[in-house]
Amino acid sequence: MIQRPTTFYDAYIFDLDGTVYLGDALLPNAQRAITTIRTAGKRTVFLSNNPTHTRFEYSRKLTRLGLPTPPEDILNSSVVMVDCLRHTLPHAKLFVCGERPLIDDLRAGGFSFSDNPREIAAVIASFDRTFVYAKLQIAFDAIRAGARFFATNADRYCPVPGGGQPDAASIIAAIEACTNTRCEAVVGKPSIYMTNAILHLLQMPPERCIMTGDRLETDVQMGLTAGMAAALTLTGATTGQAAQASAVKPHFILNDLGDLLPER
Ligand SMILES: [Mg+2]
């Protein structure tokens, strides 16, 4: 049961993994749809929960795949994490369960790092394919010594060709389980931090925007909470059957981004 928009919106916000591309290939009709939307004079921006690349790397990847996009039109959870920490714990010493691009973004944002639990002001949990027991031990010791606890995103897995990779939800769960604490804030979709960052970037009322993604609990939920139109694409983490069964109801359900274009 595919439902598609009947008119253009003024701004289109796209998730990346499972929505625009999978691995190193654009998904069907992504290029045609996004190019058509741009040609119609509408704004396109990209929003990812994935902090394993910087916005500069995402910009280069989109451009290489045939969708030239400046870094300023891309937001990911590490950009928003830096912004959030600058307000709550400026210049703090951090311990990061995350990968190099997140650490680079945090360093550029004025933060430093420590492995000493007594020095650590905050533990940052993230999508970390280098996660080991020794990191869990430091996070555990730091939080028990009073460190605060934040996370970039809470996705359970990241879709990749042929399957998925365990994402930040599993790192958060490991730290929560051993410390018996709850992560204080998850800044990625569908949080208010991400919503505020995107609306600040667009400078546009939410009702003129449409959020499109492959996950109900992050992409669609964020769009709905923000007062935007919300579209689910069936090219990634969500099947049509799962969409029917969910309490999160997008305005539109698309086979791929081609269905985002108004019917003529
Ligand atoms: Mg996705």
How far is the N terminus from the C terminus?
19 Å
Helix content: 25-40%
Radius of gyration: 18 Å
Low-confidence stretches: none
Q: Which architecture of the largest domain per CATH?
A: 3-Layer(aba) Sandwich
Shape: globular
Mean pLDDT across residues:
96
What is the H/E order? EEEHEHEHEHEEHEEEHEHEHEHE
Kindly identify the CATH topology of the largest domain. Answer: Rossmann fold
Supply the CATH class of the largest domain. Answer: Alpha Beta
Largest pleated sheet: 6 strands, parallel
- Strand ordering within the main sheet: 5-4-1-13-14-15
What is the number of E strands? 15
Alpha plus pi helix count: 9
Bound molecules: magnesium ion
Number of domains: 2
Write the layout of secondary structure elements.
Elements: E1 11-14, E2 21-22, E3 25-26, H1 30-39, E4 43-48, H2 55-64, E5 74-76, H3 77-88, E6 93-97, H4 100-108, E7 112-113, E8 122-125, H5 133-144, E9 148-151, E10 157-160, E11 163-166, H6 168-179, E12 185-186, H7 192-202, E13 209-213, H8 216-226, E14 229-233, H9 240-245, E15 252-254
Helix pairs in contact: 3-4, 5-6
Looking at this protein, list some descriptive labels:
264 residues, Rossmann fold, binds magnesium ion, alpha/beta, six-stranded parallel sheet, 21% strand, 35% helix, globular, 15 strands
